[in-house]
User: What shape does this take?
Amino acid sequence: MRYPDAMRIVPPPPPTSFPPLPAASAWLLLRTVFKGRTRSAAPPPDTHYRLDRIDAGHVARYRAAFGFPAEDVPLTYLYLLAQRAQLASMLAWSLPFRIPGLIHVENTLALHGPLRPDAALVLTTSLSLPPPAANGAVHAVLRTEARDGAAAIFDCESVYLIKRGQRNGPGAGPRPAPPSGTARAQWTLAAEAGRRYAALSGDFNPIHLWPWSARLMGMRRPIIHGMHTVARACAAFEQSQSDQRSVTTLQCRFTQPVPLGATAFLHDGAAPGGFVVVCNDRVALEGTLARA
Assistant: This one.
């Protein structure tokens, strides 16, 4: 049967028609320093990158670094793939903002189907720029979806702060209060923790590496990557003796940085699946997760 052109079913292009997903590296981040910006606010076209297979050895090193007990790919590891696609996309697009200085404030991850490490994935990334918040804050939302052929495998939505709003302006909201009670888990960050995670993740942002490099970027002291804290929290839940199911969905919000050398405390949240990470008597991370 022939279909009219407007109704013809067109199969998706094969993965080999897309460029390979760039490897995570310090050079990729360095290129962002020289990336200019445009005055255009029109959303750029989606990008598509292919990943021929997931590096099983890299996954094993990631599991060992955080203590994930299962042999499957941790949900938070998939953020590393999405982050590579999002950074490559921002370098390819004409953007109305500069990439250095973006602050990662929220993240959502969801696994939708079985993940075959040897499967060829296509990662599609889109950008949206919501209207300014009530307090004047401006955000960029990057969403990456990974597909194995026609099947959706996982998606990742990262929200970045472009421009800070008024600290006490409308919609700013009160600072979350730290929970009371015994922590589910705790960990102290070594001075080299940021460099170790940078080597593992490919995120060599100077604010995470050394005191002098953090000061060059306007930070008093180096801080750990936000997704390092998320991975430690998820691994702690999966290490539970009573329930070692893998985390399959995750939503989190970063509220305070976690300095290197500090101790972080993981608490259960008030709602089912909720969790809170506290550092220096302040809530640094709050979110919800589900397992299957």
User: Anything to note?
Assistant: Residues 66 and 81 are 17 Å apart (CA to CA). Residues 174-292 form a domain with the Thiol Ester Dehydrase; Chain A fold (CATH 3.10.129.10). The helical segments are 26-33, 56-66, 75-92, 193-201, 211-216, 226-238.
